[in-house]
Specification:
- The chain has helices spanning 14-25, 29-48, 67-76, 138-141, 150-161, 181-192, 212-221, 236-242, 251-262, 284-294, 320-331, 366-369, 373-387, 413-436; strands at 9-10, 77-78, 83-89, 95-101, 107-114, 120-123, 127-130, 143-147, 168-171, 204-208, 226-230, 270-276, 299-305, 338-341.
- With 437 residues, the chain is of the alpha/beta class.
- It folds into 2 domains: 9-78, no CATH class; 83-430, Aldolase class I (TIM Barrel), CATH 3.20.20.70.
- The strands form 3 sheets. It has a 10-stranded mixed sheet, with helices on both faces. Strands 1-2 form a two-stranded parallel ribbon.
- The radius of gyration is 22 Å and the shape is elongated.
Length: 437
């Protein structure tokens, strides 16, 4: 018989906390929101200090909250509704992956990446599974099993903050964030609020396969937040074969929406993620078409050679030569696109668990990737130079685990981290659900 679920809510569930404060304190919505923000801020600070329960949150009674709120808080709320079931840490200590168990028994993955400059990035999941159905993605083939609440998303940050001062958050874990829109927006609000975790909106990146209506409202509801677009094809016909949702969201409309997003504010640089599939989207014609599609746009193109363990539809990895040729075309004077390549070597890791092993301390992080134009172009030249250098087949081989090369940002490794564990995480989730049935 499954364990009884704790009926208490998490303190990072904004709506539930505001409703509780309003009822207990008999105050209006504005006052309740103010009290709730104050309480969430203190809890976020306590998490960074290692707190595990509300009893570990110090000086709650000194916050000026109504006594009726403080006295009933522990009976109605907990600091965490989730728990870290398992952690894997890379041999060099730069990366930690967490398997996070939700209150209902489902599990998701979050990944902490520590940069040499002292900055730390967290990759969070927003859904259990995904319904977008991308043919190269194990998660997408299993469908959408559930949405995470805003609090469950924030708790991934709270877990990570116990050991690290997280500066960047990327929504590149399990799920399509824009299909869990309201909860993702609420989570971003809590992460960026001065009465929350205090992150800058510019340090949060939302990755999407291209949900156009929500891409447009994202600018309004989470201003300043960065966008990463999973493109994977340079034309509509090919994209429909790789990304089924492209049938509803045409490439022409997607590009127009991308332009609108980048024009909405200064430095709105966008990542373009392009999974390179052998014999599908990796030839010179595709590279030139992609270059023409993106020419003149302030984007970062990420060529991601397919990992063969993540190919439920039978896709195969591209050859080293094909990827190198695509890189040369995209970075040529004809297109002059800021382009990087993900290389995978599989050293210093346990392949079965997909543990990251990051080897290059000089790899740029998100702040470098979205720097002003002059600095960006300088970094792009460095990428181009290092990417064009001769590497052995072993250095460019693709395995079930990930080590980024000199020309790859640790931020982008979050996407691979999620993919590497998605099948395992979903298998555990399905097993749990069958056991509870």
């Amino acid at each position: 018989m499954p364990p009884t679920r704790d009926a208490r809510r998490g303190v990072f569930e904004r709506d539930a906390l505001v409703a509780f404060v309003r009822e207990r304190a008999s105050c209006d919505a504005e006052k309740a929101e103010k009290h709730a923000k104050t309480l969430r801020h203190r809890c976020a600070v306590a998490c960074r200090g290692g707190a595990m329960t509300l009893d570990d949150v110090e000086n709650v009674r000194a916050l000026g909250l109504p006594r009726a709120v403080v006295d009933a808080l522990s009976a109605n709320f907990v600091l965490y509704t989730t728990k870290v079931r398992h952690e894997s840490r890379s041999g060099d200590g730069t990366t930690t992956k967490m398997i996070v168990e939700l209150a209902g028994g489902d599990v998701v993955e979050a990944c902490v990446m520590r940069h040499a400059k002292g900055r730390t990035t967290l990759c969070v999941s927003s859904q259990v599974g995904c319904k977008m159905g991308c043919t190269f993605c194990a998660t997408g083939t299993l469908g959408e099993l559930g949405n995470l609440s805003a609090g469950e998303i924030c708790e991934q940050l709270a877990h990570a903050s116990r050991g690290d001062a997280v500066r960047n958050v990327v929504f590149m874990g399990m799920g399509e964030p824009l299909n869990n829109y309201r909860n993702v927006i609420d989570a971003i609000e809590a992460m960026t609020s001065d009465k929350g975790f205090g992150l800058s909106p510019a340090k949060i990146t939302v990755s999407t396969v291209g949900v156009i209506p929500r891409m447009r409202t994202l600018r309004r509801d989470a201003p300043g937040t960065r966008l990463a677009l999973s493109l994977h094809a340079p034309n509509q016909a090919l994209r429909q074969k790789i990304v089924p949702t492209a049938t509803a969201y045409k490439l022409e409309d997607l590009m127009a929406t991308l332009d609108e997003h980048m024009a909405s504010g200064p430095k709105m640089k966008t990542m373009i993620e392009y999974c390179v599939l052998g014999g599908v989207n990796d030839d010179e014609a595709c590279a030139r078409e992609l270059g023409a599609l993106l020419r003149g746009k302030e984007v970062i193109v990420n060529l991601i050679p397919l990992n063969p363990t993540d190919t439920p539809a039978g896709h195969v990895p591209p050859t080293r030569e094909a990827v190198q040729k695509m890189l040369e075309i995209l970075t040529s004077p004809e297109f002059d696109l800021f382009t990087t390549v993900r290389h995978e070597m599989g050293q210093d890791i346990a392949g079965a668990c997909g543990q990251l092993a990051l080897k290059t301390p000089d790899a740029p992080d998100m702040e470098d990737m979205i720097a002003p134009k002059k600095k960006t172009r300088a970094v792009a030249k460095k990428f181009k130079s290092s990417s064009s250098s001769t590497k052995s087949p072993e250095e460019l081989s693709i395995s079930s685990s990930v080590v980024p090369s000199r020309d790859w940002s640790r931020v982008e490794c979050a996407l691979v981290a999620a993919t590497a564990l998605s099948a395992v995480v979903l298998a555990v989730t399905i097993s749990n659900r069958k056991a509870r049935a």
